[in-house]
Amino acid sequence: MPNRFPGALSQDWEPVVLHKSKPKAQDLRDPKAVNKAIRSGAPVQTVKKFDAGSNKKTAPIVNARKLEEGTEPAALDKVSTEVRQLIQKARLERKLSQAELAKQINERPQVVQEYESGKAVPNQMVLAKMEKVLGVKLRGKISKS
Length: 145
Hints:
Layout: H1 25-29, H2 31-40, H3 59-71, H4 81-93, H5 98-104, H6 109-117, H7 124-134
Helix pairs in contact: 5-6
């Protein structure tokens, strides 16, 4: 039978050292691990976090809210009474319902209703469509309430 390993066979007897991996940060915060370290006499560091565990509102948030309210406009401009009366008058002269006008300008009937009631925020595109269909100038008549 032929020898599979040419030459002399020798064994490698060098020591192999296995090291434990470092504990993860999450494992170090585990209460069991902290108690074990305290019992064994290892140094344990405790750090109190600022406002940890408190659920109270502080003054800077209130001040930030006041600042935010002061910079934003309180209410957006609405359609003026002149414009809404012009829309209504021109629509009735053409014998159109709100739904028919909405269909012709490719908007929802609710949009026309809001413009006629004065609740809508003026949109130049919608006003331009209404001007085309109704044949009335509306965009120069928007006043700020």
